[in-house]
Amino acid sequence: MRFFLGTNGPNGFFSYFDQLIDYSNAKDVTIIKGGPGCGKSTYMNIIDEALKMSDAEYIYCSADPKSLDAIVYPEAGIAMVDGTAPHIFEPSYPGAVDSYVNLGNYIKRDELFKLRGEIERIMTDAKTRFCAAARWVKAARHIDESIYERVADSNILSRITKRARALCGAEIPMQKAQPVQIVKRFLSSMTPDGLITFFDTVSENFGRVIALDDNYGLSSNYLKFIVKHSVNSGYKTYVCYSPLHPESGIEHVLIPELDLAIVTNSRARLYSGEPTRHIRLDALVPKEKLRGSRAYLRFLAQTRTAFIDEAAEQLSLARECHGKLEKLYNPYIDFEAVKAMAKAKAENLKSVVKYI
């Protein structure tokens, strides 16, 4: 399954990296440190290819969604994570569970020191781009809030709760179990390629998919009720937050034990698979409430799209900065040593997996 653990949010980078793995089950967590282009993704890919674990969660980078930030094997209790800024990750149980890998040891520092001025200039430029992107994301968030405030009222929210309660009774049976912790993830993230969603995680891993048709931001209220019921019923529940509302805005909910996914489906981000069922939250809004607001809501939606596009443009320029840094670093890194270390770690992890 593919996820993000961070996003370029309204106030800068927002992280759920502290949710990487359930430490009560963790056996081995490798924290990888190193600069741009030092081989962190290469290191993880070599180990992943060697282990071939079927339950892998691939965590991608919001600054470049083709690059890995982490890989988690929940059943085995194994994880690897890029522990460098902005998603700094430090050990919970140093030595007992967590270990460091410092790829900086394979950098020819004397050569890079000569490039210090250029490196500083590029890093400063990238920081400026990230700050600009955050401002545009915050503007888009304000648009979301304006749309929601225009539409939602206590009557609609009450009807949403009733619909959610009915779905819980039909699809999420109570079982005798203690409440479990939720697993926080992002299925969507604000990236240089725009606001993207890994809907393949849903379509390829869940047989039952319920799409909440929602263009007004109502689904988060619905999903909060679902999450509470699912967790209290003892099901491991993946709660996927909105990149524009990362603190509390729930966008999708995945319940693997029930083979059930409940996803938000909107004109801005259509679910790419074939849902088992649609629930039209939009239909809960009375037509008379919309009659005098359609032009205004359409204007807000178009403005939101423009703001998202501007944020993506700034993130694209930041990605170009990162690419320049990688080109500067690459000639001065001993990649053969990095690969050898990864292969050695893979052999070590095979023995860990063998005795689980």
Taken in chain order, the helices and strands follow as EEEEHEEEEHHHEEEHEHEEEEHHH
Shape: flat
Q: Which segments are poorly predicted (pLDDT under 50) over 5 or more consecutive residues?
A: none
Summed over residues and divided by their number, the pLDDT gives a mean of 94
Describe this structure in words.
The strands form 4 sheets. This protein has a 6-stranded mixed sheet. The chain has a 6-stranded mixed sheet with strand order 9-13-14-15-12-16, with helices on one face. It has a two-stranded antiparallel sheet with strand order 2-3. The chain is flat. It is an alpha/beta fold. Helices cover about 40% and strands about 25% of the residues.
Topology:
Blueprint: E1 2-4, E2 6-9, E3 12-15, E4 28-33, H1 40-51, E5 57-61, E6 64-73, E7 78-82, E8 98-102, H2 109-113, H3 116-151, H4 154-171, E9 182-185, E10 188-191, E11 194-197, H5 200-203, E12 208-213, H6 219-232, E13 237-242, E14 245-255, E15 260-265, E16 277-280, H7 287-291, H8 294-329, H9 335-354
Parallel strand pairs: 1-5, 4-7, 4-8, 9-13, 12-15, 12-16
Antiparallel strand pairs: 2-3, 5-6, 6-7, 10-11, 13-14, 14-15
Helix pairs in contact: 1-9, 3-8, 4-6
